[in-house]
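Subgroup meeting minutes
Present: P.N., E.W., G.H.
Scribe: E.W.

1. P.N. recapped why we're keeping a running log of single-chain structure predictions: easier to compare across weeks, and new members can see raw inputs and outputs side by side.
2. G.H. added today's entry (278 aa).
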Amino acid sequence: MYRRISVHLDHGFDCPRRTRVALALAKRHQAELVGIYASSAPPQYYYGESVLLSRTLSVIRDLQTQNRSSVQNAFLEAAAALDVPATVRAADGTPSACVALIGRTSDLVVVSQENRDDVEAAHEVEFVEQTLLSAGRPVLVVPSSGEFPVIGERVLYCWDGSREAARALADAAPLLRTASHLVVLTMDEGAASRKEASVPFEDLSTYCIAQGMPAPDHVRRDIKGVGVGSTILNAAADHSADLIVMGAYGHSKLREWAMGGATASILQSMTVPIMFSH
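Output recorded in log:
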């Protein structure tokens, strides 16, 4: 079971949604919940010795301190109402750096899908992607619309035989052991997909059963003309999945993220929570 779960806290209107998800998971696993306050910091530089700008920055910091108290109190009150032990932590740096740093001592990190309409949220270029690739922990991304009272009953797991996919299965094990239905999705990607043949599905199936997970159903889809991201989301809808588990692939080059073909598109179009592992 997960023993400590972290959730990103900021001033955005998506914050209560992901907090409810994190609280439900913490309650289910009898886990401690850590709220990581990571909001957009005011600029730490200014041109010349501008007294006006200095005063403006001071006002911004004061407002952020007041808003932080409001966010923190709401989080702690919600946790107390469900009898979930909770604390709030914060650190200096960008939002993704704060969440990644503090989240490394948790079993799972909960964040929200980017929502451009959420103007009060922590704004940072590719916050979710940077958190995924630097936290070193599994990251559960909650869609920016919808409510998700049940997560992990019907799970779609994406398997291609890779290191990231294997890591994702292990990271999701505490949830998968309590699932009622598990579907393993493999995709026909031509030559690339043949790497998966070196690990027979039967081996994966017996491993899942040995770990106390449901005996998985195997579904294979052809991605031609559809794309990896759409194939995964379509399969999730077809099998009424309330959670997708998959590996995240990526690297940074001139602040452009190459996310293995699937991760970036899914982050834009996701309809159910997704647990990523990198």
